[in-house]
Amino acid sequence: MFQRILLFVMDSVGAGALPDAEQYGDKGTNTLAHICEQIEDLYLKNLHSLGMGNIISLPHHPPLETPQGIYGKSAEASRGKDTTTGHWELMGLIKHEPWPVYPNGFPPEVIKPFQRATGRKVLYNKPASGTEIIKQLGQKHMETGNPIVYTSADSVFQIACHEEIVPPTLLYTWCKAAREILQEEHAVARVIARPFKGEAGNFRRTSRRKDFSLPTPQRTSLDILKEAGISVTGIGKIEDIFCGRGLTRSFPTENNAHGISIIKEVMSEIKSGLIFVNFVDFDMLYGHRNDTRGYAQALREFDLSLPAIMEKMEKKDLLILTADHGCDPTFKASTDHTREYVPLLAWGPDIKSGISIGTRYTFADTGKTILHNWKLQDKLANGKSFYGKFTTKNSNRR
């Protein structure tokens, strides 16, 4: 049994279009491969050594005869391609009905009660790129105090406000009011606070973003672990995505580098249980902005951070690397998430290397496998454990 499992979600690092991607307008997308194709000097040494090039064909990352890790990829069984759906499925909850989306903006039965709750009119109320909409309407927002409300191809209700005009605490209150309104047929996956700073021509979003999700409609692997007395630590957006459910400790992050710093601190303090981390920069800063070069640099930085984490891992530790969806920055038809497979890599100081776990038919296999470590797998209906693939270097299966 592993004493400690680290689950790292590389937010939006997709590994090729799913068979049904065309239904989502995402045919031909491949986040990892297309970034590697466009950025000729991109080489992810540590991810490559674990077996990333054995999962899909990647320029500069040929398949290795014996990768250091265990490798495969996962398909998404849920309907959707968003953060909430992906993370929920990783923890064993498959969502068969898609979230509501609003390509024409939110209807009066949503906007009118929101305006009553805030005492302000809303600006825009259409799909938009978050960075572009604050460029367009940031000054008008500062002059009127009215919040910028927008959505995307995902199921989100986003509220952008300048921190000097609407303090983040008030913005969060408005988000909570929106969350209460957005229920039943209008139950969007997330209400998102999008605070920004700066002056006209130089507006920039801040790290005080906060997501307000719906509670999961049924127990997940996190709930099962916590109920069994297992430590469950969330780092990054995990608390927001799961509304705090199933967590014993939580640490928000400002960016990927901050997340790595917190992981190191947590590893020094917590010697057992699950450490569940979301690395949001890939998606938020680069995927949605079609910034291929920025995305590549974020991948480089993440890759270079892995050895320090692996060196801190103890003999009975396991690291699992995966993602929640794609967000192909080269896909000029859209700035939104893409319907893709996600990579699945695992490594531990005391497990055999170079083992393929093939293509998993649901992200839920990951949550099932984590539960299997603590002999709790029978408490989760969805997923098929690949725990049996983890063999020690000096013995047969654990």
Write the SSE topology.
Layout: E1 4-10, H1 31-38, H2 45-50, H3 52-55, E2 70-74, H4 83-90, H5 108-118, E3 123-127, H6 130-144, E4 148-151, E5 156-162, H7 168-181, E6 190-197, E7 204-205, E8 210-213, H8 221-227, E9 232-235, H9 238-241, E10 249-251, H10 256-269, E11 273-279, H11 281-287, H12 292-312, E12 317-322, E13 342-347, E14 355-360, H13 364-373
Parallel strand pairs: 1-11, 1-12, 2-14, 3-4, 5-6, 9-10, 9-11
Antiparallel strand pairs: 2-13, 4-5, 6-7, 6-8, 12-13
Helix pairs in contact: 5-7, 8-13, 10-12, 11-12
CATH topology of the largest domain: Alkaline Phosphatase, subunit A
Radius of gyration: 21 Å
CATH homologous superfamily title of the largest domain: Alkaline Phosphatase, subunit A
Which geometry do the CA atoms define? Answer: globular
Low-pLDDT parts are none
The CATH architecture of the largest domain comes to 3-Layer(aba) Sandwich
Mean pLDDT across the residues is 96
Describe this structure in words.
Strands 10-9-11-1-12-13-2-14 form an eight-stranded mixed beta sheet. Strands 3, 4, 5, 6, 7 and 8 form a six-stranded mixed beta sheet that branches. Helix 5 (108-118) runs antiparallel to helix 7 (168-181), helix 8 packs parallel to helix 13 and helix 10 runs parallel beside helix 12 (292-312). It has 398 residues and is of the alpha/beta class. It has two domains: 4-93 and 216-389, Alkaline Phosphatase, subunit A (3-Layer(aba) Sandwich), CATH 3.40.720; 108-213, Alpha-Beta Plaits, CATH 3.30.70. It has helices at residues 31-38, 45-50, 52-55, 83-90, 108-118, 130-144, 168-181, 221-227, 238-241, 256-269, 281-287, 292-312, 364-373; strands at residues 4-10, 70-74, 123-127, 148-151, 156-162, 190-197, 204-205, 210-213, 232-235, 249-251, 273-279, 317-322, 342-347, 355-360. The model has no long low-confidence stretch (mean pLDDT 96). It is built from 13 helices and 14 strands.
